User: Fold this.
Amino acid sequence: MTKGAECRVALPARLDIAAIGTLHKALLAAAGQKKPVVIDAEQVTTLSTVCVQALLAAANSFRQRKIPFCVARPSDVFVTTFDGLGLFSSLMSWEVRQ
Amino acid sequence: MAQAQTSFDPMRIVDNGGDAQDKALSRQVVCFRVGAESYGVDIRLVREIRAWSPTTNLPNTPDYVRGVINIRGSIVPILDVRARFGQGQTEANKAHVVIVVAIGARLVGLLVDAVSDIVAVNESEVKAVPDVSGAAAHECLEGIVTINEQMVALVAAERIALPVALN
Amino acid sequence: MDEIAQLRQTYFQECDEVLSEFEAHLMALDEGRGNAETLRAAFRAIHSIKGGASAFGYRRLVNFAHALETLLDKLRNGSATLTADTISLLLRAADIVADLVRAAQSGGELIEKHEGAVLDALVLRADAGALAVAPDAAPTVASVNLTPAPAGKYHYRIAFNPRSDLFQRGIEPQLMIAELRQTGSLAVTADAGAVPTIEAFDPKRNYLSWAFELETATPSETVAETLSFVADDDELAILNLDRAVGNGVPQNPATEATKATEDSNGDTAAGSARPSADIAPRPLAGSGDDALGIAPVVSSIRVDLHKLDTLVNLVGELVISQAMLNEQLSLVPTDKFPGLIRGVQELSQHARNLQESVMSMRAQPVKLVFARLPRLVREVAAETGKRIRLLMIGEDTEIDKTVIEHLHDPLTHMIRNAIDHGIETPEERATMGKPPEGLIRVSASHIGGKIVIQLADDGRGINRQKVLARAIEKGIVTRDQQLNDEQIDNLIFAPGLSTATTVSNISGRGVGMDIVRRNIQRLGGRITIRSTPGIESIFYLSLPLTLAVLDGMVVRVGGETYVVPLSNMVETLRPQPGQVRTLVGGGDVLSLRGEYVPMVYLHRKFAVSQANTDISKALVMLVETDASMRIGLVVDEIVGQQQVVIKSLESNYDAIHGIGGATILGNGRVALIVDVSMLLTGGISPDSPLVSNAA
Assistant:
C-alpha cells in the first residue's frame, strides 16, 4: 500500500478539552472518505477522556463503513490512558501498528 | 493401548471421482462382510475404521452389545453385527474390524468380520429388500444393490442401534 | 455487529447480578438490617438496569424499571414510607423485572399486561407517598443497624454511570480514577456501548460509564465522600462486597442537606464546612501512603462456561494420558532411564497441579444458592403463619459448579420440611418457653474432602411414634424390628411416608424426601437427619466436591476391572470360615461384630465370566450407601487406589443399573464405576433396615 493511498490523521501532542473541536472535524473527515485510515498517535502526551470518546466514535464509524483503520506508533501516554480508563480491550480490538 | 488402527478421512474419498450429476444420485458406501454375506453402510455416517480391541463388558445388556471401548477419551459401545442379525456371537480377534459410526450425537462401533471396499452406489440401482433373510437382519436393511455381481445389502445404521437407543 | 451482541450479553449477565443484589437489599431492609444506604443502593440497582435497557431499546423493561425507580426514589428521599407491604410489592416488582429481562434476552414477548398490575401498584404507592417527612431528614427505615464497620480491608464494587453533562461540569474521569487508585488497589472496566458513530457524536456529551472494583482500607463513607465531589448521588452505586453491614450510614442529616443544596446549585464548590472541591488529586484522610503496596489487584473476566468445560475436559484427558504414561513407565527398569522417570514424575506433578487449578476455576461460592433462601423462608413463613429467622453460615465455601446446580432443590425441600413440620406456630412456641421466632440455621463447610451442608431448626423435632407407626403401616418395616432412634428418624426418607394428614400445598407436590435422597445419592452424596424431640432437627447433607473426578478403589472381578468410590468405602476384609451365612429367603449375609451385612456378589450382579466363586478366596469390601445401609461387595482382588476422571456412559449409550459412569485406566481400558446405592435393588429391598442385633 503506497503512502498516497492512505488517509493519515496525525494526532497532536495535547489532546485536551480545547482540542476536541479540531479532532472531531478531522475524524469526521476521515470517516467520510474511502481510503484506509492511519491514526498516528506517536506525539500524544496528553489525552483527555473527551478525545478518547471521539476516537471510540470514529472507530465505530470506520467499522460500520468498512474502512480499514489502524493506530500507528501509539505513545505510552496514549496506551496508558486507554488502560487507565478501563478501555484497554477497546484499544486492543483495533489494529495497532508500530 | 497398542492397537492397529486404520483411520481414514471419509470426506476425502467422497470427493474423489464421479461427476456432479452422478454425485447427486449416488452415494458412497463402505462394504463389509459378516459371515458369507456382504453389507454396506453410508460413508457419511462412518467416522473411523479400526481393528478390534478387547471391550469392557457392560452388564445387563442385550447379547449383541459387546461392551465399551475408549476412543480418544470417549466411551463408545461396540455392537456385534453378527449377533444383532441373530447369527450367533462373533469370536472376535485382532483381525476383526470395528466400523465406528455416528448416529445423531452418539458414536457406536459395529463389529464386523472385514471391510472390503468403498463403492459408489447409484440410487436407481437400489432395490427393495425381499423378505428372504431372517427378521432381525431385515429390519435393519434399507435396500439391496448388486456390485460386481455380488449382492450387497445396504444397512440403515441407526436401526442397528435402535433397540439400544430405546432403552 | 458482534460487539453489540457481546455488550448485550454482558448487560444481561449484569442484570442477573444486579437483580440478586437488589433482592438482597430488600431482604436486608425487611429484616431490619438495612439503612439509608441500602435504599440508595436498591435505587441505583434499578437505575442501572433501566439505563442499559434504554440503551438497547427494551421499551417495556424501561417503562417498568422507571416506575419501580420512581418509587425507590421516593423511598430513599423519605417522601414515601417503607412498610412490610411495600417490601412485598418491591419483591414482586423484582420478579417482573427478571421476567422482562428474560423476555428481552430471549427475544420472546410476554403477554400484553404481564407487568400491568404490579406497574399500577408501584405508581399508586409512589403517588400515595404516605407520612409527611421533612425532605432533608434521613429517610426512615424499619430499623437502622449502627454496627461499626470492622477494621481491615474492604472490597467495593462501584458503578459509575455519569450523566451526559459530565464533561460540561468540568469533570475529567481520569483524575477521579487516579484518586481512587490512591486509596487502594483498583480494577477499572469501562462500558463504551453507548458511544455512537462519529457522525452522531456530540463532543460535549458523555457516553461512557464505568465499573470499579476497589480493595482498600478506607471505609465506604470516606470513599463515597471523595467521589461525591465529582459525582452525584444518582450516578454512583457503591456496593460493599464484604457485606459489612451498617457501613453506609450517612454522617448526619446535615450532610444530606448540604448535598441537596449542592445539587440544586449545580456547583461543586461547597460551604465552609468542607474543603474546596477542586478535582486535583489529593491524599484522603486516613489512608496515607501505605494505602499502596497491598494485595494484588482483584480483577476478573467473564468466561463462557462452555469454554471452561472444554478446558476441564482437556485437562481430564491430560490426566488420563498421564496415567497411561505412568503405567508404561512402571515397566521400565528404574536404573536404565533415571532422567526419563524423573521427567515423567515431574510431568505427573504438573498435570495434577493443572487439574487442581482448573477445577478451582469452576468452583463457586455456595452463597449463590444461599442467596435465594431468605426469600424462600419469607414466603413459606408467610404461608404457614410462622415466624422464622434464617441464619446462613459459610456462604463463601466453594463448590464445583457441577454440584452447585444440584443443591437448590434439596435445600428447598429441607427448608420447606423444616418450616412445615418442624417449627411450631408462635403461640405453640410460647407455651414451650421458646422465642416466638423459629430459628433455621444453614451452614456449609468442607469436611473430609466433601462439602457438608447442615440445616438445623429449633422446632419440635421428629415425632418418632407417628413415623414408626406410619412406616409399619406402609410395610416399610415390620413390627418386630428393633430400630434405634436414629434409624427411626431416617425413616422419613422412605418413600410414601408423608405424615401430614393433608398433603400441604407447600411440601407435598408428590415430591418427598425419598426423591431428595435418591437424587443426592445419585450424585455420590448422603443425607441424614438427627432429631431431639421438642428441641431441634438437623439435616446433614454431604456431597462430593466435584462430580467430575472421583477417588476410587480399583478392584478386579474375574477378568473385569471396576472402580468403587472411596467415599462409599468403610473397610475391606477376608471373610473367615463361618462368617458368611445364607438367609432362608435367599441371599447371603456377613456376620460382622454383631451385625448382619447383606452381601452382593459383583460377579453375579454384573455377570462376569471366569470369576472366582469361592468365597474363602474372595475379598469383601464393606461399603455404605446411606446412614443405615451397609453392604458387603464381594470382589476378587483390590488393585489399588486411584483418582479417576468420570466419563459418562450415557453420552453414547444409556444408563445401566448399578453403574455410575466409566473411566479410562492407565492401561487405556475402560473400567466401570460401581453405583453402590443402586446395587441392592433387584435383590434385597433397600428400604428395609437389615442391620439388626444378632440373635
About this structure: The two ends of chain A are 16 Å apart (CA to CA). Residues 49 and 85 of chain A are 8 Å apart (CA to CA). The helical segments of chain A are 20-31, 49-64, 76-84, 88-92. Chain A touches chain C at residues 17, 20-21, 24, 27-28, 31, 48-50, 53-54, 56-58, 60-61, 63-64, 81, 84-87, 90, 93 (CB under 8 Å).
